[in-house]
Specification:
This protein has one domain: DD-peptidase/beta-lactamase superfamily (Beta-lactamase, 3-Layer(aba) Sandwich), CATH 3.40.710.10. 42% of the residues lie in helices and 21% in strands. Strands 1-3-2-9-8-7-6 form a seven-stranded mixed sheet, sandwiched between helices. The protein has a two-stranded antiparallel ribbon with strand order 4-5.
């Protein structure tokens, strides 16, 4: 009997070792994304995860581990929240403009859920957050494993734009990987609609899904994000770029440059891997 017990212990240990081997930690490889950032007069980090190689690439892994306010990248999680809590049911649900002036002219109109995401309509997503409330929002974020958000009843409609909420580039990519692989505890309908609204661009090489973000948590700092993933025929790359203006940077370019730098880095990485 003792020999049989020892045999089962041995099998359990063998299975455990094999499981650890299969869950090998991704490699971290320093790559010259810094040149891309320097040439654009910004500072920060570009982080890319290559699914087929199980490897992270970045110019600055320390920066990629830092937490920053998520800004409008939180619209990915907030969209899931809206769908899972029945605040919207499909891409055609309408958000009514209240006829008041908004920060952007493109927000001064009625728009559907798809348009609200694509135009990054802050008032629309603030409405979603208020309708959700603190208790449901907290439960939803816990359920999908979206970390680092700090809020209460006084900040429920702006905690992703200011305050103590923080998320790192590594955490952004971890969340996107679980979304892409359908490892979140959400409905199939939510997965399908998220795929529709997150599609930003389609080229012969890849389909790009994601979200930009721009926050000004204080008067002197601009924080820019792009997070997303590119689906190729034979691979998937996950991206999280976090940048701040450097010396001599023209802030008028900050809107477009977040995604642009991410794609430059991706194109260079993909070309080297061919």
């Amino acid at each position: 009997m003792n020999k049989l017990i020892y045999f089962f212990i041995f099998l359990t240990h063998l299975a455990s070792c094999q499981s650890k081997k299969n869950k090998q930690e991704p490699n971290r490889i320093i790559i010259d994304f810094q040149t891309i950032l320097d040439s654009s007069k910004v500072k920060g980090s570009i982080l890319i995860f290559d699914l087929s190689k199980n490897a992270y690439y970045s110019n600055d892994f320390d920066w990629a581990n830092k937490g920053f306010i998520p800004a409008s990248t939180f619209k990915i999680a907030n969209s899931i929240n809206a769908l899972e809590n029945g605040i919207v049911t499909d891409t055609s649900n309408i958000f009514l403009w209240d006829s008041q002036p908004k920060y952007l002219k493109t927000w001064e109109q009625d728009m559907n859920f798809y348009q609200a995401y694509q135009r990054s309509c802050v008032p629309c997503y603030q409405e979603i957050a208020r309708k959700t409330g603190v208790t449901k929002m907290r439960k939803t974020l816990e359920n999908i494993g979206y970390p680092g958000m700090v809020f209460d009843s006084t900040s429920i409609d702006n905690f992703w734009l200011e305050g103590g909420s923080r998320i790192s580039q590594f955490e952004q990519i971890d969340f996107l990987k679980r979304l892409f692989n359908k490892q979140l505890s959400i409905t199939e309908n939510t997965f399908d609609i998220m795929k529709q609204i997150m599609l930003l661009n389609e080229t012969p090489q890849y389909k790009l899904y994601g979200k930009t973000g721009w926050a000004q948590p204080n008067d002197s700092t601009n924080i820019g994000w792009f997070v997303g993933y590119a689906v190729l025929k034979d691979n998937v790359y996950f991206l999280a770029t976090n940048i701040q203006p450097g010396k001599g940077f023209g802030i008028g370019d900050f809107g477009r440059i977040r995604m642009q730098l991410s794609l430059l880095a991706l194109d260079g990485l993909y070309s080297n891997h061919k």
